[in-house]
Specification:
heterodimer; A: 285 residues; alpha/beta; four-stranded antiparallel β-sheet; B: 271 residues; 10 helices; 3% strand
Chain lengths: 285, 271
């Protein structure tokens, strides 16, 4: 059974004339890693809100079409049941801190407390997640006093600790430096290895290219392109709808235009090196 | 990784300080009993020693500085205010002159009455201030949740406290950004007011949008999931020793009440 199914879904926010999502049809398979890219205002976050059930349970407005989570219509789900099923890390780190916990350790444990997980297990899971996200030296700090990047890590750790099968991660690295970004992606890779269903919204296209199995390109509320990562990110047409191509793919197309095509358009650095070496071996240049 | 800190969650939270480690409801009961006793006595001979006792308790709890910052100001304002009001409200009939300050006559009776009222308020407020200075709000909410207060109420109370801090920070940020654009934000009260009032719009708007996102963030943490919640941080329930302390505190309160009622009854009977 599909993890999430969207059937001709359109959505319009209250008091607006234009739909934020237009005729989206897509199936998310369990255990796969999806990347959502596209221009700002293209509908990426609205799509996340929809899959997480915040639309229509929290944000009203006009929803058409069917959204099925584990085969059950989103309208029939209770929001609290979805919150125990789908993890959601969203963009703004400043509002993701609960304001009621006085240490980072307790903040990360909050979701598990709400789920009624036994105390020993909470301690073990929170400890592991803090180690994975390299926030062990922050565990005694007041979460309200952290920097944006630190708050983002704590918010991510909090959801990660809840260990849910599906995760929606909306720009988890927007406040992070390159090192922090690498750390977060190494965790996301770990989740991928655990066969979690992951939907990641991210502007860092080279990282998306490296980790995701399928890509959705959103533009003006429509699903402009979708499919396997190679197919979508190697297609220069995605740039016409405001999405970026990975540097390696741009290089591959440049080689092709120069009359020196590689065996395939590379979408990450490792592939670019591999294809260039293969070409050198074959053609000598 | 601080393993001692992590291990501390496996047992009841303790600081090693006798007063701080009392159950929040025990502290509340004791402080309420003493506050009530100050109310019953209405006498400076009880109010002032109670105020001193409050200072000793917070000093032993290591919170004297925080306590005195509030209590010191409160004491001065209260005493001065009540003294002046009492003197102004005294009619110069059947009263004993006490002192003349630059032509303003003060009377012994109004001075004593003012002193009794001020010391009662100081004793009463001091007892409650001791409680709030030495009891973190989260501890109080934890114990109230144990007694059946809802998870949601507890969250609202705790988040409201933090929101005050957050709003203050947001106001400072907006004022700083105004300053960087060349708008005068410092100077006399009119200049400050002119700079401050325009910040209210963005401040309230950011508070509203922040609340919406906070709601979603809490939902993401399974806040509304039904069923029993776990408490990572647990406090020791009220012990038999604490029950004795509560009993003693209320016995004192009762004694103060009786010390006022019995003489009044006796007077009524002898009349």
């Amino acid at each position: 059974m599909a993890a999430i199914e969207l059937k001709d879904v359109s959505y319009r926010h209250p008091y607006t004339k234009e739909s934020a999502l237009k005729h989206i049809t897509y199936t998310f398979e369990p255990g796969k890693f999806y990347g959502v890219i596209g221009e700002n205002g293209g509908g990426k976050t609205t799509l996340c809100n929809l899959i997480r059930g915040l639309i229509p349970h929290f944000y009203k407005g006009r929803l058409k079409g069917d959204v099925l989570i584990d085969g059950k219509d989103i309208r029939d789900w209770v929001l609290s049941d979805l919150s125990a099923k789908i993890g959601y890390v969203f963009q703004n780190p400043f509002t993701q801190i609960s304001s009621i916990k006085s240490t980072v350790f307790e903040e990360v444990a909050l979701g598990l407390e709400n789920l009624g997980v036994p105390k020993d297990e909470i301690i073990s899971r929170v400890t592991t997640v803090c180690e994975q996200l390299k926030i062990t030296d922050l565990i005694k700090n007041d979460p309200n006093e952290l920097s944006g990047g630190q708050k983002q890590r704590v918010a991510f750790a909090s959801i990660l600790a809840m260990d849910m099968d599906m995760m929606i991660i909306d720009e988890p690295t927007s406040q992070l430096d390159p090192e922090g970004t690498e750390d977060v992606f190494s965790i996301i890779k770990l989740l991928k290895d655990q066969h979690k269903t992951i939907i990641l919204v991210e502007h860092k296209i080279d990282l998306i290219a490296e980790y995701c199995e399928e890509i959705l390109v959103m533009s003006n509320g429509r699903l402009a392109f979708s499919g396997p990562t190679h197919e979508v990110l190697g297609n220069p047409a995605i740039m016409e709808v405001g999405a970026m191509m990975p540097q390696s793919a741009v290089f591959g197309h440049a080689m092709k235009a120069a009359g020196k095509p590689l065996q395939q358009i590379p979408i990450n650095q490792a592939e670019a090196v591999e294809f260039v070496n293969a070409r050198k071996e074959h053609y000598g240049n | 990784m601080d393993t001692t800190f992590i291990e501390s969650f496996k047992s009841y939270q303790k600081t090693g300080n006798f007063w701080l480690d009392l159950n929040p409801l025990t502290k509340l009961s004791i402080c309420s009993a003493f506050a009530m006793s100050a109310l019953f006595m209405m006498d400076w001979r009880y109010g002032i020693p109670l105020s001193i006792l409050c200072c000793i308790v917070v000093a032993l709890a290591g919170k004297f500085k925080e306590f005195f910052q509030i209590y010191g100001k409160l004491s001065i304002i209260l005493i001065v205010f009540i003294m002046i009001v009492r003197q102004l409200g005294t009619r110069p009939e059947n009263v004993t002159p006490l002192i003349n300050v630059f032509g303003w006559q003060w009377y012994t009776e109004s001075f004593k009455a003012a002193w009794d009222t001020a010391s009662f308020i100081l004793g009463f407020s001091g007892a409650f201030l001791v409680y709030f200075i030495t009891t973190p709000m989260r501890d109080l909410m934890y114990t109230l949740e144990q007694k059946g207060v809802s998870h949601e109420t507890s969250y609202i109370m705790l988040a409201a406290m933090q929101n005050i801090v957050d709003l203050r920070k947001a106001a400072t940020t907006i004022l700083d950004s105004q300053k960087s654009r060349g708008i005068e934000t410092e100077g006399n009260i009119i200049v400050r007011a002119k700079a401050f009032f325009p910040t209210l719009g963005p401040l309230l708007l950011s508070a509203f949008t922040g609340s919406e996102e906070k709601l979603i963030a809490m939902d993401a943490r399974a806040f509304s999931v039904k069923g029993n919640h776990t408490f990572l941080r647990e406090l020791e329930p009220i012990t038999p020793k604490e029950n004795i302390l509560i009993f003693l505190a209320w016995a004192i309160a009762l004694a103060t009440l009786l010390s006022k009622i019995i003489p009044a009854v006796m007077r009524a009977v002898t009349k």
